[in-house]
Design brief:
alpha+beta, Nucleotidyltransferase, domain 5, 3 domains, 16 strands, 60s Ribosomal Protein L30, Chain: A, 10 helices, 5-stranded mixed β-sheet, 4-stranded antiparallel β-sheet
Length: about 375
């Protein structure tokens, strides 16, 4: 995980930092295949569930006032359909309300706790590649910027055509290098940060030419061999989505190799109690958590101890995994989510430490395809 990715996650979480209010509502609604009436029913379920928890701590007037922004959505459910089907995050504190479309799938659920539930936001940040996309058609070259906020066109240029017989090997060589040179010059002028990955979309010949000859320092090995019109945003989005899955698989493979090496060197933890202790001691460099798991309870962030409950008991309960993610991020570490099926030892957490724990007991690591 690069420092750019970590910075992106922190920016994405900036508006969800702990506020001074007591309780926070985090709700996620997946509107895919839902009718307007079904969206209303989901919003009413969130209100009912949240009100039941809040009334254990607050008078009825304060609880109802807190949930008014959700009630307003019940009157205007079309707001959750305005940008097409997908997953929406609803975040409410006593001072603010935020409605955010997320570029990932997450099951619908809601929680009232003393901090916002951030795991789906983390998933969105790591699923959406922060990259530039260079689209090469026969007549034009287009550059797009893909990030958590969406897809933005940076610019387009008419492609230089050859006035020479490109069947002549020398002429073809000179023309190809001239093409790469002007593309490189253009990228140097318009790209904000040359360390951001560059995804290539175009013909096989164009992709090989740019890979072999371009001076751009971070061209992704994965590419989309498909000729797409530089103005066809819908197809560009689909191409980005398909390549994201390939990149994610390779990313998971790299994570498992890192955990395997760290485990051999005594620099990894896979036990929830020991991970929580190291998080409180600011000794976690990278934390990996199961994205589809919730562990309800109370975490003491100062010493790493916690109490577990079979389900959310009250407004002070939260997902221990979510709290650990927030604690590690606040202390300068990195956090990533993995499917439970990909977690080593089928653990719910895994951590790479900054330094070896003083009372380290070597954990046995079992990853399919890797042996110690």
């Amino acid at each position: 995980m690069t420092s750019n990715t970590t910075a992106k996650k922190r920016r994405a979480l900036a508006d969800l930092r702990l506020s001074q209010s007591c309780f926070h509502l985090s709700a996620y609604i997946n509107t895919t295949n839902l009718s307007q009436n079904e969206i209303v029913a989901e919003l009413e379920r969130i209100i009912w569930q949240s009100e039941n928890l809040l009334l254990r701590q607050w008078p009825i007037g304060k609880a109802k006032s807190f949930l008014n922004p959700i009630r307003n959505l019940v009157q205007k459910p079309e707001m959750l359909m305005s940008k097409g089907a997908g997953c929406w995050g609803l975040f409410r504190s006593s001072k603010a309300f935020l409605l955010k479309k997320l570029p990932v799938y997450t099951p619908s659920f809601s929680v009232i706790a003393d901090s916002f539930h951030i795991k789906p936001i983390l998933k969105a940040a790591q699923a959406e590649m922060d990259s530039y996309i260079l689209v090469l058609s026969k007549t034009k070259v287009g550059l797009y910027r893909a990030s958590l906020t969406g897809l933005r066109c940076v610019g387009q240029m008419n492609r230089h055509t050859s006035n020479t017989n490109t069947h002549d090997m020398l002429s073809k060589y000179l023309w190809e290098h001239a093409t790469v040179d002007w593309i490189d010059d253009w990228l140097n002028d318009v790209v904000e940060n040359l360390n951001i990955p560059l995804l290539l979309i175009g013909s096989k010949d164009d992709i090989e030419l740019l890979r072999n000859e371009s001076n751009y320092p971070n061209i992704l090995h994965d590419a989309v061999e498909q000729e797409i019109d530089v103005q066809d945003v819908a197809n560009i989005r689909r191409a980005l989505h398909s390549i994201s899955h390939q990149v994610e698989k390779k990313h998971i493979s790299r994570i498992l190799k890192q955990l395997q090496r760290a485990s051999v060197g005594g620099m990894a933890e896979f036990d929830l109690h020991r991970v929580a202790l190291q998080a409180a001691q600011r000794n976690i460099a990278r934390l990996y958590i199961a994205e589809d798991q919730h562990i309800w309870g109370l975490l003491n962030r100062k010493n790493g101890t916690f109490i577990l409950h079979p389900k959310q008991k009250d407004c002070f309960d939260d997902d221990i995994l979510d709290d650990l993610a927030e604690l590690v991020l606040q202390n300068g570490g990195e956090v990533a989510l993995l499917p439970q099926s990909q977690m080593p030892n089928q653990a719910q957490v895994a951590a790479i430490l900054k330094s070896r724990a003083s009372k380290y007991s070597k954990a046995r690591l079992s990853i399919p395809g890797f042996t110690l």
